Task: structure prediction
Amino acid sequence: MHQDLACGRPPQQSVIRIGHDAVDAVRQALMSRPAGGPVAIVADQAVVALAGRIGHGLQGLGIDARLCTMVAEERTKSFETVGSLAAQLLAHGVTRAGVVIAVGGGIVGDTAGFLAATYMRGLRCIQVPTTLLAMVDAAIGGKTAVNVVLRDGSLAKNAVGAFAMPELVVCDPATLVTLPPREMQCGLAECVKHALLADAGLAEWLAANAMAVVGKDTAAIAGLVARAAAVKVAIVDRDPTEQGERALLNLGHTYAHAIEARHDDRIKHGEAVAIGLVAAMTVASRLGRVRHAQVESLQALLERVGLPTRLQDLVPSPDSAATLRRCMELDKKRAGKGLVLVLPEGPVGSGLVEAPPEEAVMAGWSAVGAA
Ligand SMILES: NC(=O)c1ccc[n+]([C@@H]2O[C@H](COP(=O)([O-])OP(=O)(O)OC[C@H]3O[C@@H](n4cnc5c(N)ncnc54)[C@H](O)[C@@H]3O)[C@@H](O)[C@H]2O)c1
Result:
């Protein structure tokens, strides 16, 4: 039994298929809408066995499926990787009538999605997310991007990208069987974000069921993916190209991207988001948008699901608050207006705040342990 969610509007519309066998779902997609010529499977090296099974499934239909692998690291989510993959697609004879099938977490999804958006000015894309984080967030909604390394070695996260909706996103809980617990917990961070944005009951569900999810209970994972994905789908449907409301999905991310800019070697994206949520909630509390008790209950929920709430949980000597504050300027949401933060408001929900008081911004850094 699987569940389908529709995301976006035609011609930029995805089907999100939850709880369906990944090999079969990709086969069915290419049977119902055949590709012209070879298709490319761009896969994380960590899930090459799954990618191979998807390839065999397609070859059984007489489809020329070519496997290209990449290493999933923030520093390989890059132009260099996209260039190397494009050269492989050209060598394999993939044309505009082909399809890119991304098999991996958010790093492969963002990189292969950007390749699909730009190779020969765009071709079809199918996403097969293999991390919880990618199932509930990264693979949904058609945002693709690569990072850029700055002259001082910092990472400008998602500095170059494109909107391009995948036609299908297959969320098969069985693909998570090899995912380490720490990565499962990273996915829970984006679920907590979705709970804060629009689904208060989801926070309670997570407090009660997170351990079943981390323990790879298939039914719990499918239920969570459907519920958390629905929050994102509703927002993307109302604002597909981030003219307004979609920016709220960046809750916690201005702090998270600054953390990742400096500490991508020790802190994973989901962990940076968890710490960023605490910082944003602290700022919101300073500005009287939420009760102080909400900061404490957020910290308690994150700790309960095994996520960090302070930089020191993962980095012995984190950068100074001043350095991290400077990195926030890199964030593309700055949009020429000074700093813009997404901040929680009320028991559930959030809004954009332009030029928040500097004292409150620094209180956010202090709350997560930056001196
Ligand atoms: N496009 C969007 O809207 C969007 C939204 C949220 C996050 N993101 C991006 O997503 C990225 C983070 O994604 P992620 O957390 O999935 O990280 P990831 O892709 O790095 O995967 C995490 C780790 O798990 C490994 N892995 C993946 N699937 C596995 C499996 N099934 N078994 C064993 N190991 C596996 C990977 O090799 C990697 O080491 C960030 O770059 C972030 O910016 C994008």
